[in-house]
Amino acid sequence: MPLELSADAVGGSPGRSPFAPGRHRLSLLLVASTLALIFVGGLVTSTGSGLSVPDWPLSYGMVMPPMVGGVFYEHGHRMVASFVGFLTLVLAIWTARSETRAGVRRLAWLALAAVIAQGVLGGLTVLFLLPTPISVTHACLAQAFFCITIALAYQTSREWLSSAGTRDDVVGVRGAAVAATAAAFGQLVLGALMRHIGAGLAVPDFPRMYGRWIPPAEVLEQVPVAVHVAHRAGAVIVLAFVLRLALRATRDGHVRLARPAQLALALVFVQIALGALTVITGKAVLPTTAHVATGAAILGLCWFSTLRTRRHLHAAMSAPAVAGLGDPAVS
Amino acid sequence: MFMRKTLAVVAFTAPLAFVACGGEKQEAPAAAPATTQAAAPGAGAGGAAAKGSASIGGKISFAGTAPAPEKIKVSADPYCQKEHKDGLERKVVDVKDGGLKDVFVYVKSGVTGTYPPPTDPVELDQSGCMYKPHIVALQVGQPLKIKNNDETLHNIHPRPAVNQEFNVGQARKGMEVTKVFDKKEVMIPVGCDVHPWMRSFISVLDHPFFAVTDEDGKYEIKGLPAGEYEVEAVHEKLKSQMGKITVKDGEKATLDLSYKG
Asked: What phi and psi, each to the nearest 5 degrees, are found at residue B60?
């Protein structure tokens, strides 16, 4: 799980903290900027520009180097990252000063700590010439940070503040959302590993693998091939878990639970198509980068579903009788 | 309180950045950059401890149809585009009258004794958004001077298998950096991540008996002691060809090798 919310942050009685529209809008901007940053980060790897700026924190000893060639992508990534870092700093200070819920304040500080750690990891990955463990951690922390920003945005929303769960989770949406989130995050870790060990084309054909549905054992013994095959298998697992979430959320009948799950399912199909295009085009920049960003969006939607189901539904005991009782505030 | 926390974090991370950035020996830009000369084939032969009088020469040829030149887009950098107004083409397999250019030819086995490295540096120039020369050869411990003669920035990033990898930026024209390789390694790929079309190869040997073929595919390795040697020719795309030859003092032996397309 990318983030375990405290009971204080998740639960909270309705109306305990007043709705702060400005801070909520800032948190939404942070979510959007972080997704954009993940796309731009993907561009850096897709264009092979990760080491086009060899120094850090400055770029060629300058704050603003000429934006030519690979520098455009690498320094552009640093600029967007600085913007996200600045937004996170402002949001953390604002939250610390005006938020009454301790859990949300802690979450905002956690976001700031994560973005600083992410910046340092980004610097280390440049200075140590893209070592796989650091590069993969940098990629995974980006996704975890994205989840933190989503949690911050949702917990400062009017919906979170005005409505709490009144229904039992009869069809098991809560568990399905958690499982889908975990599967999506695991798949992103595998994807990051595949990307940073250069295994994106270790299996050159699609949908078959070396002409077979299960590649030959002697080929599977090679680590890049094994990681690539695991990522493809992971796609099937994510599809299964997100489909389960979408079906359960739809069966629950609550439009706010069903929509993000259905959108996540649609994006999984888009994602599989992008993955296929990445292989077929020999890692063309656009499909490869869009594959990274869509993966983040799927994780974000699953994570958002997790938060929403936990907000709107109680863990089911055995009370199908109350399943039909909707929350008037959120219907 | 909040500001104190933030400052504490910055104070913690800033030294990390400076520590990690240290250790690079970069010379300031020269007022007037020196004229660059490509390292001549066999340029490192001067420091031989057991100097001989034999030599091996010949022609590396290519039979077949060479791949079409690769067209390269340089529009990502306006300076490079200005330098190549008519576009840039790269001949990875560069053939003239059957002779193959830019093949690294060296004595792979048979050399005995030690050969201290020359103190004169071999130069690798970045000019017109290209590396000059394309194939660089030097001895273990011999300085490699890397210069930027372009009015744009470059990074120099060799990806060796056994030597220490490095990545150095040169932001301005006239900047120079000197590096030394401490292990022998043949055809280390060198690239500029800013301009992905820039490619060069560095070969590092523990003796001075090597050469790079000229545009006619010819090479000559001088100063060899008499003996029996195994010679390897390595091309960046066509890989390697091997040959064996025996040379006597004062003689020039001929060893021609051929690739097929």
From this structure: -100, 120
Q: Confirm whether pTM is higher than 0.90.
A: no
- Contact: B76, A129; criterion CB under 8 Å: no
Structure tokens at B251: 């003689």
Query: What pLDDT was estimated at residue B51?
Result: 75
B104 — phi, psi (to 5°)?
Answer: -85, 120
Residue ranges, chain B, pLDDT below 50: 1-25, 28-48
A306 near A181, Cβ under 8 Å? yes
- Let me know: does B176 contact B27? Beta carbons within 8 Å: yes
Of A61, A69, A129, the CB nearest to B171: A61
Closest CA to B104 of B241, B216, B11, B230: B241
Report ipTM (2 d.p.): 0.80
Residue A7 pLDDT: 41
b/e map B184-208, b = 16+ CB within 10 Å: ebbbbebbbbbbbbbbbbbbbbebb
Interface of B to A at Cβ within 8 Å reads 2, 6, 9, 13, 16-17, 20-21, 76-80, 152-153, 155, 157, 165-169, 171, 192-196
Give me Rg for the CA atoms of chain B: 21
Question: Would strands B54-63 and B218-224 be described as parallel, antiparallel, or unpaired?
Answer: antiparallel
Query: Is A51–B6 a contact, with Cβ atoms under 8 angstroms apart?
Result: no
Residue ranges for chain A with pLDDT beneath 70: 1-16, 317-331
Q: What is the pLDDT of residue B10?
A: 39
> Could you say which of B13, B20, B193 has the minimum Cβ distance to residue A70?
B193
- pLDDT at B29 (0 to 100): 45
**Alpha-carbon gap: A131 to the closest alpha carbon of chain B (Å):** 12
Distance CA B195, CA B205 (A): 28
Q: Look at A68 and B16 and tell me if their CB atoms are within 8 Å.
A: no
Structure tokens at B203: 């070969």
Phi, then psi, of B80 in degrees rounded to 5: -65, -35
User: How far is the C-alpha of A326 from the C-alpha of A312, rounded, in Å?
Assistant: 9
From the CA of B168, how many Å to the nearest CA of chain A? 6
Cβ <8 Å between B196 and A48: yes
CB A302 within 8 A of CB A177: yes
CA torsion angle for B4, B7, B9, B12 (degrees, to 10)?
A: -120
Find, in chain A, the residue whose alpha carbon is nearest to that of B194.
Answer: A70
In chain B, residues with a C-beta closer than 8 Å to the C-beta of A74 are 193
